[in-house]
Design brief:
The structure holds two protein chains of two kinds. By secondary structure, chain A is an all-beta fold. In chain A, 0% of the residues lie in helices and 60% in strands. In chain A, strands 2, 4, 5, 9, 10 and 11 form a six-stranded mixed beta sheet that branches. In chain B, strand 4 and strand 5 form a beta hairpin.
Chain lengths: 111, 116
């Protein structure tokens, strides 16, 4: 079993729909990252969180440490949101910088 | 800032040849990471440095892979000899540290390596 599991693996939706991508992990962590990989291949860090919720524009990330689960939400989705979204966790040892990645969720938003 | 710079962006080589990938981290960042991405295995950490010192190289596949960071502004990842299974996109990322707290990693554009 992978340390980081994402669901769904693929998601297709219509423009304007509310999107949820889930991430579950099996180890203790100090932080969780959500990354976006564009069709061209570039990787951008969207969020880094260790508790609660963060919001940036139409994107919201939440984490439940007790349940070892995080969600990434996109409100009013747009075709430009089409990308692969990757969840990654950083180990629980303070100062540890190693990231372990999920397999990614490929999101396609149709106009 | 120009962001993390990687070169070359694309490399095609023949099996058995030496390959050197280069990375310039963001100025002021004290962590540097090398990742590999393949369709089968996704993103994997190969090695990371803190203040130019290798901290964790447990992800380096085998002795054919080596990485160096001679100074704070430059790192190399070398594969010698290269094999077709090394074909992948190699990403470099950098970050800064805050006492006791997590921080964001900034990724370079990647080097797409094809070994024939």
């Amino acid at each position: 079993k992978n340390e980081v599991e994402q669901s769904p693996q693929n998601l297709t939706a219509q423009e304007g729909e509310f999107i949820t991508i889930n991430c579950s992990y099996s180890v203790g962590i100090s932080a969780l990252h959500w990354l976006q990989q564009h069709p061209g291949g570039g990787i951008v860090s969207l969020f880094m969180l260790s508790s609660g919720k963060k919001k940036h524009g139409r994107l919201i990330a939440t984490i439940n440490i007790q349940e070892k689960h995080s969600s990434l939400h996109i409100t009013a989705s747009h075709p430009r949101d089409s990308a692969v979204y990757i969840c990654a966790v950083r180990g629980g040892v303070q100062g540890a910088q190693k990231l372990v990645f999920g397999q990614g969720t490929r999101l396609t938003i149709n106009p | 800032d120009a962001g993390v710079i990687q070169s070359p962006r694309h490399e095609v080589t023949e099996m058995g040849q030496e390959v050197t990938l280069r990375c310039k981290p963001i100025s002021g960042h004290d962590y540097l990471f090398w990742y590999r991405q393949t369709m089968m295995r996704g993103l994997e950490l190969l090695i990371y440095f803190n203040n130019n010192v290798p901290i964790d190289d447990s992800g380096m596949p085998e002795d054919r892979f080596s990485a160096k960071m001679p100074n704070a502004s430059f790192s190399t990842l070398k594969i010698q000899p290269s094999e077709p299974r090394d074909s992948a996109v190699y990403f470099c990322a950098s970050s800064f540290s805050l006492a006791g707290g997590p921080h964001t990693q900034y990724f370079g554009p990647g080097t797409r390596l094809t070994v024939l």
